[in-house]
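[retry 2/3] MBL fold metallo-hydrolase: previous attempt timed out, resubmitting with same input.
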Amino acid sequence: MKLRVLGCSGGIGGVQTRTTSFLVDDDILVDCGTGVGDLERDELLGIDHVFLTHSHMDHIACLPMLVDSVGEARRMPLTVYATSETLRILHSHVFNWLVWPDFSTIPDRRLPFMRMQPIRVGEPVRLGKRAITALPAHHTVPAVGFCLDSGTGKLVYSGDTAYCEEQIAAINALDDVRHLIIETAFADEQHGLALASRHLCPSLLHAVLEELTVSPEVLVSHLKPGADDRIMEQIAGHGGRLVPRALMTGEVLEF
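[retry 2/3] MBL fold metallo-hydrolase: success.
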């Protein structure tokens, strides 16, 4: 499998600051932040599956526009995979005819532009030889991470999460984890804010990495614009067996 980073920032404001979205094998999106807006129309038309970690705006911002832009040109619905709680939030607060049309009923319920598919933690969604499995996460809204399995290697994406023992255990139970994309949204001086908003800061990231028994390449995402260098300096200062680096927009990971 091949993952292309469309966006991995914790905010906007510049060429490299697009919010979280990953294009996998040309037909899958993992999260649907502002980075999706940089894709060409032909690329948008090639997307059949969207996997969402949670309902926060920086992870779903482009989903309404994506469906609106390509829905009429598609022969089959775009399938959106998320937990039932996240799908309920999207229906109630986004696709509610007030913020945006309910594309799960347009042009009719039998063949809509968008289909919502509930997923559960630990149950893989199989797309050919590929499997995508939701992992536990701990955030301010219902949330998951994902394990992407090509059959020959795995990539784990934490999603937005605080320190989560269940996610650590799930990662340690995997074999052949090539890459770990993990968020660190705040600097250590904002430790209290990180706890309150259920994100990681460098000291909490260090605690997570110290518990891992696997040895993936660790790639840090969701860095706040303007604080990214400071956060990465603090991560380096904590040391440890695993040596994280910042994930970059435009980067391609193969596994």
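[retry 2/3] MBL fold metallo-hydrolase: Residues 174 and 230 are 32 Å apart (CA to CA).
[retry 2/3] clearing retry counter.
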